[in-house]
Amino acid sequence: MRELLAGYLVNAAWQIPVVALCALLVSRFGSLSPQARNRLWLLFLGIAAVLPAVSLAALLPHAAPSVARVPADAVAAAAFEIATPSPDVLLPTAKPALELSAGSAWAMAVLSAAVVLLLIVRLSLAALAARRLVRQSRPVVLPPCVARDLERLAQGHGRIAAPVRSSARVSSPAVVGALSPVILIPDGLAVTDEDLRAALLHEMAHVIRHDYAVNLACEVLTLPVCWHPALMALKAGVAKSRELACDAMAAEALGSSKTYARRLVSLAQSLGSQTLGGPVNTTPAPLHAALAVGLFGRSDLEDRLMHLMKPKDIEAPALRAARLCGLAAIGAGLLGSAALLHVTPVFAQPASPAPVTAQPLAPASPAAKTAVSQAEKDAVKPQAVAPSARKHRGIIINDGDVIMNGDGGDFRHTFKASDGRTFTVYTDDAKDPSPEQQKAWEDQVKTAEARAAAAVARVNSPEFKARIAAATARAAEAEARVNSPEFKARIAAAQAHAADVEKRVNSAEFKAKIAAAAARGAEAEARVNSPEFKARIAAIQAHAADVEKMVNSPEFKARIARAAEAGARFNTPEFKERMERMERRIEEFERDEAPAAPSAPGAPKPAS
Fold it and tell me: Is it the case that residue 69 has pLDDT exceeding 50?
């Protein structure tokens, strides 16, 4: 049990940032609808709670070995063994990636139990606070047009409109309750019927989507890892996408995103929130304690307005499918790697006599050590950082109107441009802009439109589509190679070879050879360090010094000079001519000394 708990907490520390990074990438570049984005964040939140308990290596034993830190010498020896199999190479035993003391398990268990118990108490208090808010509230009689719109929205989704009640303990409309949700509004809410309709349609969207129950389930599911900072980023993404999804439903019920955006601004001003340039105040204490989901929760009002006013992107289906496939591949790769590199901590055991292990015959090369260092750096996962709240700058062009938020200011200026369009600009300056400033803003909008048109043309160009098709083909080809029988056969052969190497290394014959080699090495070292060997080395060094002294002496150099002079005389033309004359005389002498040939019988003898 302690191994499971320690492994879950250790893996959660580095895997949850990986999940948060995947969620941020897919949500940012996926161009998803608000409803799909909210489901995506909920999915990644569930993965963050479950992934630390999942080990892909345990589910698929042949996928990869357990994570362990192997010394550089072992990597070098293994590489040499694969390249040129030899029974003389020894692979050292791998060390565990994480070793904990025996008391650390109890500390983790106690700390986790305390955190979980504290959050269970918090959830119980939240349930009591929600019941207290509903019990202390009073029924509200809504205007007939507002009640009719709420009933229409609820019936359109097969639901019954939730009751609306007023409470002095809330300062913003909110939904409370999981099984029987209730919409609460502040006492004496002084807003117009149109503003009230927009607020209640937003809250009815929360009721239809069961957001209170889903929020409570997320809190319960993430109890074991609620301490992780990256989990807060995932929860923030869930909350933000939830508000965007409800805004989309309410805007659709009103029939216009622009009308709903104006109603949000008016409600924010009426409820005492900050102006359009910054985020809305955080949820009031009673609503926050009750885990309520409301109109102005912990979300950025400016982001919501920009999303409502943003025109829908018209994108080719093939390009959208290619981008989604690429993001899905990146997310699956990161999550699959995180599940595959599941760290199993090992608890330290009492000290025992260390077994005698042989050492590698040769040290690791610098190239092998560099490769191991680079692999360890590549194994480090990047930590996901929660995006900080900041002011946005941008241009929105919709139905001939232009909205600019140039400096993130609070003052609104509206004017007609030279082309007839209406410009709305938010700045930090309360004075009306000059004609030159208006002309500069018009030039900025024209430049932005030209860049957008160029970008759309590049994306829709045949070259870009051809590159996407080529990348898809290369990916399919690589997948086919990986899944081919030849590749699988090579993997099986490598595994069999590794098993043979391990068997040879652990055999008695190999250990005996290592012991004999160690004995011979010790004997050679003893001979080298003996007095006799040192005396012989000293005598050889003295003789070498005498020879060097003799070679450098004047007498030896004079003898060498005389020998060189004699050799030079032997190569002169006169000496060569004398040698030729001597050779001719020797030949004549040999002819004179040769015996005469015997004469034939009966032949006359020569006269004397």
Answer: no
